[in-house]
Structures are given as structure tokens and as C-alpha cells.
Amino acid sequence: MSRFLDRLAEGPPLVADGGMGALISSAVSRLRCPEEANIRAPESVLSLHLGFIRAGAELIETNTFGANRRKLAAHYLDEEFAAINESAVKVARDAREVSGQEVLIAGSIGPLGDLDGSDDERRAVFAEQVQLLEGRGVDLFMVETFFALDELLMAIGTVRDVSALPIVALLTFDEDAHTLSGVSAEAAAAALADLDVAAIGANHGLGLQAALRAIERMGTDKPLAVLPNVGLASLAGQRVIFPHATPEYFAEFAAHARELGARIIGGCCGTTPIEIAAIRRAIDEQHTPSAPLVVRAREIAAAAAEPENETLLQRKLRTGEFVTSVEIDPPRGGNAHSMLELARTLKASGHIDVVDVNDNPRARARMSGLIASAAIERVVGLETIPHLTPRDSSIAGLESMLLGAHAEGIRNVLAVTGDPPEAGDYPGAQGVYELDSIGLSQMITRMNTGEDYNGREIDAPTSFFLGVAVNPAADDLGYELERFEHKLEAGARFAMTQVLFDLSYLEAFLERLGGSCPIPLLVGVFYVRSYQLALRLHNEVPGIVVPEHVQERLRAAGADAGSTGLTIARELLDASRGLAAGVYVIPPFRQPHAALDLFS
């Protein structure tokens, strides 16, 4: 057995060190990454190691958490890969020698930073770093701060392929004891139970209580390790600010960790030798907790006794009644009066079932489509289908908006990709696009099952009626069909087509689907009043096809093109009744009330 395994098995818990990366970055200016200090300022790294050892740490980690070749390459340091890793171990060993203490040295190995490349390529990156660290004399490996269980399993397997040294495997958990990828502490422990690792546990994360909660729920016979952040960090300008946790708070943490069976107790980001000294005292004095462990009880809203009522759109599509909608744009300012008056007019006509509300169409900033829809439903009582694009918001932002919209009663949602930013008011802006429309559909479906995008529970399931866009006139119909299949798999319940000027495109699309669509379709009908607009739509707007025979009818109509455009739109409306579940009408520019002309 190794010295580490002997020490892990006997005596009080091992005290580990604290947050190397954050402290090094504060101490040495203009580092491209904390690991660069190993070759630029090794004396600062040595000083920090000694500070932790003098505070009582028996286990220190090399300053190599992000020193794999892939991460270093992002900072143009890949040519210094060997020097950075070798110097890190040398400095740690020098600290042990200077201190005269029996200190164990763990080679710190973090995730790769991205998931590109084949599995073999990623394993090679891990293996290269492992071999360098072992060659310079580490006692064990700390495979730490992993957010994805699959990547941790790959890293463990790679270490074991090239080294027999002990492994401590650590994941990062949120306040509900789930990783960012949605894996529970219980499931993670089960996955690691039969692997050749010396200890498992939690590090980094949202602070002391979150880490304690994670190890409490692991329920494993393996030794546990817990090395949390001091708390949730925040930014003040370019500075990272950590909470002011007291040494007494860390002593309480150490007592709770020991009570839960932790055999390695230390810290991560924000923890200094002061906190490690408090842990050391608590272990030496066999400190007992002064209060029960605080475990945040999860409050799940009780499911309604009765199933939630169907939306009007759901009911009409289910019963086969033809649906009519008008597409409207939210205002470009903060005054919704005109939009609400339009909605009142459409509702009063008796011809319109719902309105679909754009989300920053043409990438021009307008009132949020979700908020505008909530106002229409609340003030006017007209049902809406808000569009939602992942172009302008992160995953967290999209979930936040959806949860707020659901609380306001919005149930129908159309997931769309959105026009590219360069088409709009801010051509230099970058779209967010953490998801595409398929990913957004998956998110909404997961929320309907009571989970967020990463699979973590939310307080109560949503009940969105999910719609998606489809273009039967796409240039590459095979690709469009493939994406449509993915949208169906993602949980789409209805679809809205791109604008069509000839339903033969829809007929060909349905034939490719086997003769019918598996979900109800609403056909897009654009009421075009001029030949010039038809020409521009066909030649300048991606995805829209205005066939030559339609262009010719409008061109030949001359001054009477408006009347001809109305006739064409009515023909499409009538023909859609035999092919689709409904239509949505795009009215003439700046004349939204004219949509009602189709029904008079």
C-alpha cells in the first residue's frame, strides 16, 4: 500500500489544502492562466504551498488543474506544457522539503475544458499529463472539479491505464446535490462504486453546505472527500469577490464533514490558509457540530388535483376544427396600446382563434414576444402563440423567461431559430445560440416533465403546448425533413410552415412523410399586395419561394395587384382546409387589420 492509502485508512481525516488557482492569480499579475505561475513565478507557488502546510495541510495539490495541453493551447502555452507540469511537481516537492513535514502531493487533473475531438484524442490529452506528473513524483492523483460524470469516468479510466497511483475522484454539485449535467450525488456514487479509486466526493461548487449535502447523499462505502469553495463568487469589475466566511464557520463545516464520514477535508476557490487552519483545529480538537446539519428541503409544488385545461389551440387541433391565426409584431417601444387594440379588433371579428406573436423579428429589438403575449391574454383575453428564439438568450435566460411566461398563463409556444443578428439593427452583435430550435424544443419538453435542460428537477412541471417551424419549400428538402424528425423526437405537438404561395410544396412534403403529417400543421399565408414585395420575398428573404406563376399574376395585375394578392391569399386559405389543420396569416406591412379581409 502507498503512504497515502495507509494514511487514508487510519487516524483522523486528512486535511487538504485550499484554493490554489484563485490565490495565485491574485498574487501574480498578468498571468494567462494560474498554471503559468509555475514557470513565471515559482516562488509565489512555493510560498502558497508553504502557507497551506504551515496551516496544517497534510495533502497539497500541484498547480496543474488546467495544465493539460488542450487548455494551455487556448492561452498559447502548449509549447510550455511539459515545463509547466514538471515545475509544478518540483515546487510542491520543494515545499515539502522546506517544511520538513510528512506532506502528500496530489497531481491535480481537471476537465479538458471542451468536449471536442474523439474519445481517443481526449484520452491522449489526459494520459500525457498523467505520465508527466507521475514521472516527477506525485503520490496520488486528484481528478477534480468535473461537471460531467462521463468525462470523469473517462479521466479515471485513462489514469488507471497509464498509472497505478491512487485516485481521488471529485465532482462538482449544486445546492440540490446534482451536477450541472443533472446527475445526482446518489447516481454518481453508484457509478463510481466499483471503480479502482481511493476516494470519491465533492469539490468546488456553491459552497460548504452544498458540498456537505452531496457527500451526505452519496451513501457509499468508499472513503469520502470534500473540498468546497468558500461560497458563491461574484464580480466587482474585473475582480472576483468571495463571501466573508469566518474561520468558525469552517470549523463547523469540518465537524459536519467528519460526522458524515469524510476522510479528506479541505477547500477550493476562495479558501486560504486561514480556513485550512480552522479545519486543522477542528480535526485536532475533535470539534463537534454546535447545530444540526442544514439540509435544504426540496419543496415541490403539489400537482393540481385536476388536469390543467386544454388551450383553445389544443382543443381545436384535437377535435379537427380548422384554426385561424394572425401573426403580429410586438411594439418597438414600451407602449403596448396599439398592439392591444389590434388584438381586440381581431378577437371581436369572430374569425380569429389565436394570434402568433413574433420574437424580435428580423433581429430588430422589440418588446419581448412572451411578455407581449402575456399582456394580450391578460388584457384582451385572446389566446396567443408566442414565438421564442434562442438567438438572444442563454439557456438560463430562456428557462427564466419560460417559467415567468408559464406563471402568467402562457401555454402555447413556437420554438424557432430566429433571424441572424446581422440582419437586424445591431449587425456587429453576436447571437447567443447556446441552443438551436431543436435544443429549445428539448428544453421545453424537459420542463414539461419537471426538469431543466440539464435534467435537474424544477419546482413543478410546466404544461407548454410546443410548436415548431417547418419549411416544405426548403431548397434541401431532405435536410429539412431530417430536422423535422428531430423536432418531433424533441416533443413537438404542432407545426407552423414557412410562408407558402403554392401548396404543391406542402403536398410534396406530406408525400415524403408518408402521406400525412404526424402532428397538426398550420400553413403560413402571406397577404402580399404588390409585385415588388413578392419579388423581394422570393429573391431576398431566405426560405421563402414565390413561384413564377404567382409573380406573373401580380405583375400582370399592375395597379390592381392588391386585389390580386387578396385573391391569391384567399385561394391558399381555402385550399389549406383540405390539407392542413389551420392557417396563420401574415398581413400586409403596417396594415395588420387587413388580415381580416381574407375572412370577409
Task: Give me a quick take on this structure.
Helices cover 41% and strands 14% of the residues.
Please, could you describe this protein's structure?
By secondary structure, the protein is of the alpha/beta class. The protein folds into two domains: 282 residues, Homocysteine-binding-like domain (TIM Barrel, Alpha-Beta Barrel), CATH 3.20.20; 277 residues, TIM Barrel. It is 41% helix and 14% strand. The chain contains 22 helices and 18 strands. Strands 1-10-7-6-5-4-3-2 form an eight-stranded parallel sheet. Strands 11-12-13-14-15-16-17-18 form an eight-stranded parallel barrel, surrounded by six helices. It has a two-stranded antiparallel sheet with strand order 8-9. β3, α7 and β4 form a beta-alpha-beta unit. α14 crosses α15, α20 runs antiparallel to α21 and α21 packs antiparallel against α22. The protein is elongated.
Describe how the helices and strands are arranged.
Elements: H1 3-9, E1 14-15, H2 20-27, H3 37-40, H4 42-55, E2 59-61, H5 69-73, H6 81-99, E3 104-109, H7 119-136, E4 140-146, H8 149-162, E5 167-171, H9 185-192, E6 199-204, H10 208-216, E7 224-228, E8 234-236, E9 239-241, H11 247-259, E10 262-265, H12 273-284, H13 312-319, E11 323-328, H14 337-349, E12 354-357, H15 369-380, E13 383-388, H16 395-407, E14 412-415, H17 437-448, E15 465-470, H18 477-489, E16 494-499, H19 504-512, E17 521-526, H20 531-540, H21 548-557, H22 561-576, E18 582-586
Parallel strand pairs: 1-10, 2-3, 3-4, 4-5, 5-6, 6-7, 7-10, 11-12, 11-18, 12-13, 13-14, 14-15, 15-16, 16-17, 17-18
Antiparallel strand pairs: 8-9
